[in-house]
């Protein structure tokens, strides 16, 4: 406590939030307090101490909230201690007096660069203030990306979750600032938190969004959809709380789901990408690859637990792959499981189209039999020779939750590269899958009225993400 030269040893869990730390301090102190670490106010009550870089044995400054003269904290820089706080003054001056340890290269998207001194104890916001001084605009509108990770405003450069050293390249990006977030430098929004709270700090919005780490909009969309899937959400949270040895991915998802339900601010997905070792987050990636890896890792972590069949029971359907000989009519087939379907989006080659293609048409094309002829003839055991044949897929049973991954790429034979297909695709609110399922009237074939996730609210009600 600056000004009182008092120290309090507080015991909290490694993943405690700022609000929990303040509550624990309330048992020893009277009146409201403000916490400061590394020269920055801890303004978001839902931020976890471990994510802020606060570890065992570290000191956190505790200031009484007062009006008029006394200790003050600026959201844009280090706090100014009173003259009587000798210990705090020494710590604060050491932060400001550290000598540069080389240079950082700040590279903009147009390849222009700034070289700024690398001071290990300078915070992410301090580096942004330096760029603001160099004419890059408001520090609140800047984002700094290094090694695929966004630098945290409150952490010193030496404590970021990416190694920074002399000569390291940090990419400079910009964020859009609304008038509300730019109106007050001490507001949570100005510190990178977007949300809706009342005067007491309680959440007022029904939903909150997910922060973009750089180019993780595809990831955020998937995580929001999974959160809006109650059976999956409950299963993951139940597993994380079961007391069993829980893997990092399950814990990360459970924490994110909890924050989406309780936090008044937009939630970070950094713990998820860290658990999956997924990156770089500054580059757009394939959401289907992320979805596949996510399911595989969840199944691995839940193996041997009551939740082991969770992913399979929700998303796995059955299909039959078959080949029919055109000569003898013999059909050979195998049964397999599928976790999603990949209907192709029609390619129009820039030509105008009379009507927007539909999801129904895309599914029809997906299940059309393929001719095997010429060099790809089928070696029929019955005919004892290579013959023309038809190869195809039949859906035998749909899963409770059907995942559709639109195939929006085609192979260009001229350039020998993949080209994105930007054709619009219309889909109904309710999709009748009976034409696509073999023996659709059988009791084991499942429900064929497929609808968008019933728990998902209208798009304009979801906020960010």
Automatic annotation (TrEMBL):
One example of a Gene Ontology biological process annotation: protein deubiquitination
PROSITE patterns noted in UniProt: UBIQUITIN_2, USP_1, USP_3
A cellular-component GO term for this protein: cytosol
Gene3D superfamilies in the cross-refs: Cysteine proteinases
InterPro entries, per the entry: Papain-like_cys_pep_sf (IPR038765), Peptidase_C19 (IPR050164), Peptidase_C19_UCH (IPR001394), Ubiquitin-like_dom (IPR000626), Ubiquitin-like_domsf (IPR029071), USP (IPR028889), USP_CS (IPR018200)
Domain Ubiquitin-like stretches: 104-179
GO molecular function, one term: cysteine-type deubiquitinase activity
Residue ranges occupied by any USP domain in the UniProt entry: 208-465
Protein name: Ubiquitinyl hydrolase 1
Species, as recorded: Prymnesium polylepis
